[in-house]
Write a structure and sequence with these properties.
Number of strands: 9
Number of domains: 1
Helix content: 25-40%
CATH class: Mainly Beta
Radius of gyration: 19 Å
Largest sheet: 9 strands, antiparallel
CATH superfamily: Catalase core domain
């Protein structure tokens, strides 16, 4: 086998067919899940809040990190949507993977995703675990097929895919406040000539205790109460791939060692004091779409799971907006 190269993709045979099958399966899944009324996302349907934010690029970054949106020390306005990953809208008391989806505003330049390639926004999609559940698209497609097939197919899948079972179980954690969690991209991205993974680390003191008499939507209330009291900040960081074998592009189920390659701070996310629990922001958050392919070419998503996202995210979002009679526009 040829020696692997840094920042290089290695698509496996049959991936395009697996991506097409996955996109069709996800569409059928949410059609069945929402036969009438409002159609929600196939993943991350439960939103805790959409917040206004600033994305403040660090001054005096080393030259190797001055790439794309990080080229100059500018301040981008942003929207950030916090959510639960589970396809079923369930109580916040249950263990889950939480999401932090970031949309930067006023980002000039052509983006990779049509038909919004000339809109001045850019997205980052982060989750509260540093690994993706499966190794590739075929395995993810098989997992979705098993999970919609019922209890027995799901048990058989995880019994025969032990690493996927471990990645999922170890990621399903309880939380006291979405603003107290660390988030990762889990999947890799191009960064100029390098490959990186992203992470957002909370740096503010946030009460992350689960209330004694917590209701099923307590994360929304905890986040809203925190932001009524004052601002919250995160460090937005990147970790460079330095070994193509131990830090693979095509298997996001493998964590990249932070000892071998520490994360480097590129920006500060400042979420100012605000009332985020308004009808207007809830409506906007429900109808806003996030896709990691909505980005500058310098930050292109890498690996099979990201290649699947380009098709699957867009097809599901288009179907959802059409069903809900909402335009699929960028803010």
């Amino acid at each position: 086998m040829a020696h692997k190269v840094l920042a290089q993709e290695y698509p496996p045979p049959g991936e395009e067919e697996a991506i097409a099958d996955l996109a069709a399966r996800l569409q059928q899944k949410i059609k069945k899940q929402y036969p009438r009324g409002v159609m929600r996302r196939d993943a991350h349907p439960k939103m805790h809040g959409l917040v206004r934010a600033e994305f403040i690029v660090e001054p005096n970054l080393p030259p190797e990190w001055r790439v794309g949106i990080f080229r100059e020390p500018v301040v981008y306005s942003a929207w950030i949507r916090y959510s639960n990953q589970n396809a079923q809208i369930q109580s916040d008391l249950k263990g889950d993977i939480r999401g932090m989806a970031i949309k930067l505003m006023d980002v000039p330049g052509e983006k990779l995703l049509t038909p919004h390639q000339f809109v001045d926004t850019q997205d980052f999609v982060l989750i509260s675990t540093n690994v993706f559940v499966t190794r590739d698209v075929a395995e993810f497609d098989a997992m979705v097929k098993a999970m919609v097939g019922g209890a027995l197919p799901m048990l058989w899948f995880f019994a025969t895919h032990l690493r996927a079972a471990w990645n999922l179980l170890s990621s399903m954690k309880k939380a006291g406040n979405p603003l107290a969690l660390r988030y990762w991209s889990a999947t890799p991205y191009l960064f100029g000539k390098h490959a990186v993974k992203y992470s957002a680390l909370p740096t503010s003191e946030v009460n992350d205790c689960i209330p004694v008499n917590a209701g099923k939507d307590f994360l929304r209330h905890a986040m809203a109460e925190q932001l009524r009291r004052g601002e919250v900040r995160f460090d937005f960081t990147a970790q460079k791939q330095i070994d193509p074998d131990t830090m693979p592009i095509e298997d996001p189920g493998v964590p990249w060692s932070e000892t071998a390659s520490p994360f480097v701070k590129l920006a500060t996310i400042r979420i100012p004091q605000q009332d985020c629990d308004t009808e207007e922001q809830r409506h906007q958050g429900e109808n806003m779409s996030f896709n990691p392919w909505h980005c500058l070419a310098e930050h292109r998503p890498l690996g099979g799971i990201n290649r699947a996202r380009r098709t699957a995210y867009h097809s599901v979002s288009s179907m959802r907006h059409e069903r809900n009679l909402m335009p699929q526009d960028e803010p």
